[in-house]
Amino acid sequence: MPRAVPTLTLASVGFVVSVLVAPSAASLEPDHASADRTSIDVPAPAARAPSPSLEPLLARARSVTVRVGDSSGAGGSGTLVSREGHVLTALHVIAGRSRLVVTTPDGATHRARVIARDEDHDLALLGTRRASTSCVTISRASAPPDPWVLAAGFAGALEGLEAPSITLGLRLVTDDGSGRTIASVHLAPGMSGGPVLDGAGELVGINVAMGRFVPIEPASLAPLTSLSCDAPPIARSFPPVVSDAQGAPDRTASLAVALAPVPTTLVDHTVDLHTSLGVVVGGVVVAPDLVLTLADRHLADARLDRPALERRIEVVAIDDELALIRVPDLGITPIALETRRSEAPVGSLLRGVVGRRPGIVGAVAQRPGLLRPFVPSPPGRRCGTLLAMRIAASPDVPLVHPVLAHDAEAMRGELLVDEGGSPRAIHVGHHTSGLGYAVDLDDALARFAAVLRR
Prior knowledge:
- Strand 9 (165-173) and strand 10 form a beta hairpin.
- The strands form 5 sheets. Strands 1-18-19-16-15-14-17 form a 7-stranded antiparallel beta sheet, covered by helices on one side.
- It starts with a strand and ends with a helix.
- The chain is built from 6 helices and 27 strands.
- 9% of the residues lie in helices and 30% in strands.
């Protein structure tokens, strides 16, 4: 149950956020968070394509992605490539580690040994001597590669983490000069060694750096040629690729093909709150004078984005990462909310009503742990000072409630809509650039049900 909060008492209260994964980087809003609310948009296609079913592909990614580390718990990710428990990972993940440990999707830990190394391509093959129920087939397709790829990995050491982060993107450059492929996938520290799958669910690469993966060539690691996996191919379900004005594949426009247009009136039910540190936090009007937003510790001294609404903000209630505030004489029509439980959110598409940059729901975090917020440097000459202030205002916080993990870019507190253009969630923040999490609106409103009924 939410707890009542006296007016303007958040200054001494930190905020709590829920997320699937958390790296060691430290903001909770992407670089475009302060952009004009109407300046970022993606033209809606003339005809909406059938929404792709990505869940089978996501399920495979989750079943073959493992943790690779040592007894200290530090490390990265790996990929199961045989029923005998062989794990392919990035060589730099195991560098300097003498007692390797692999944690499989069922939570079991196994000692591992290095079977082969490929220093030129930053790859390593490990053996665990434990049979695996899941594995992924290494692609040997001779046809042109899928433009779409799906990358997975454990973004940082997060206690209680049950599933890897998953992100979807397009190949942009097939060779960056060092044999790596550049793709529009959002990768975080800790995801190195994780799989990159094509539309058929076959392994085409291993994550090695931000936005880059190494294509798999079995000849570079001789033992790979003798390994086999009987995982069947998955029916390809990616949307068609749309190019930008320069002819380059455009991830945002391509995903938008499978989305219904966002009703332009939805933004009229939202507000922006500007804190004293220059951080913009969104909010959704859920009652004539009540706004659902985030429990930022500087919320009490925030001002609304509309000059006529620079009024005293009363913090009515806080429930972990969310807050309900009262703004007298708000004059904004509350949003009409629908209960949407007809389909599982994992594998579905989301986008914000302001930025409108779409992404996929990669997982639902059922047992969150601890978050280290990602804080990008603010623009300006004194960015070092401002960054330090922002980091100080965004400490590590425990995670309590389940959330939707996704790779859509959004502003903190921004309203996210589903494939049909209906309100779905409120974006809580990013644990690294491009990888974020959100609270389902049904869950958010249920937390404040007693207050909303008054």
